[in-house]
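Support case: user asked for a sample of complex input and structure output to validate their parser. Sending the pair below.
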Amino acid sequence: MPALSPAPKRQDSLSRSERKDQTRAILLQAALQLIGEGRSFASLGIREIARQAGVVPNAFYRHFRSTDALGLALVEESGITLRRLLREARQVGDAKNKMLRRSVQVYFEYVKQNRLQFLFISSERSGGSKNLRLAVRNDMVHFSIEMAQDFRRLALYNEMPTATLQMVCGLIVNTMLAAAPEILDLPPGQPLLEAETLENFVQQLQIVLLGADCWKDRAQRQPQPERQHDR
Amino acid sequence: MPALSPAPKRQDSLSRSERKDQTRAILLQAALQLIGEGRSFASLGIREIARQAGVVPNAFYRHFRSTDALGLALVEESGITLRRLLREARQVGDAKNKMLRRSVQVYFEYVKQNRLQFLFISSERSGGSKNLRLAVRNDMVHFSIEMAQDFRRLALYNEMPTATLQMVCGLIVNTMLAAAPEILDLPPGQPLLEAETLENFVQQLQIVLLGADCWKDRAQRQPQPERQHDR
DNA sequence: TGTACATCAGTGAACGCGCGTTCACTGATGTAC
DNA sequence: TGTACATCAGTGAACGCGCGTTCACTGATGTAC
């Protein structure tokens, strides 16, 4: 069953634990929906989430100790979503600059389709709770590690030391995530404005990749101390 | 007669309006202090802020309609702080790469010294309230415009179209602001870790500036459509 | 100059309300025999 | 296979508490004469 059903039902002939998982998912979804209505996660209450989910307040405790625990579960879930995105973008095998533009388009669509998750992730990245903040940041690090591996696999930036490549990928992930709230705040039905935002985003990433190229050249001219450049 | 207290005093022989401004400042400071204790802005209440400020809850209304209004005032105040930083960093007139490293060091210190404001700004950049979010983003745009003007003044990237330069500056401001919460979450008393974070940050900005150089080269080889390149 | 009045920043009490959390419960599902 | 019991996801009522907001107030500061 696709994730985007109008309102997740809980019934049918399922086992007890399946039903419990369903309610859990509904609670998570309910929190995201409230965030989607412009609420900030830190201001959500147990009763409010339970109400949105259509269960009695007390039922919340069967699934989460507190709203903070639910928040961590949301980060985890969204991490999986993001990783799926990366895996898909990985498939593309165009020329470098075309690949970039295409990846950005894919990302744009992805952000819009997973609006609520990105809303949550972007705001908790530097949000109120330290736990959540660190969890999101941890995900971002994993994310950029996977991206660096991809670059290695595609045999790009071979001459670049791993640490530097990692750093570049961190910058890219950073830029991508910073773009998310801007995408999400775009007024709907303004394709021109949207195209401009996309173009701006593509150019920023081009700058970063060009910078990485030049860095590579620089490394060849004056070798970095942390790694001998084989030749 | 009241003795000197460590907390900000409101007494002395000031005019009524001066005293009012003082209380207002104390309320703003109180909100920042609560944020500094790990609270998220969206979860702050009027009574809570008033309590921290040492005034009766009702007094809050003499200064702000709601916590949201106080939030906007905080953004404004922090914008002024940030602009001051820019003005100072502007003074430096080293060679390009040395200037970068120095600017980053200045920025690091600045972030640590204005911990609370940066905590607030970073989390409201993509936080819960749309108004606050747009206010912060608006500040960031102003910020990158001023930076672009500085580059023009220093006669850097002369060949680059203004729109592109703007975009590069946006990327830089972005990267700077994303670094803030990482700086703020650094465990104290670990100079090595701090140095690494700083180094990473410097390198990211170097990549961006190198990218801008290459872009310039590229523009010379294949002129951009949006502007004739004079020569 | 002094006096009489207006202003208004901050007070203190009170209100209704939704919150988080607790408790004993219900009744369908799961399990042992 | 059926029966008897255990489990436990979700219920419903109740609690004490802090919230936002209101109101009438106080008393120092400011102003007009």
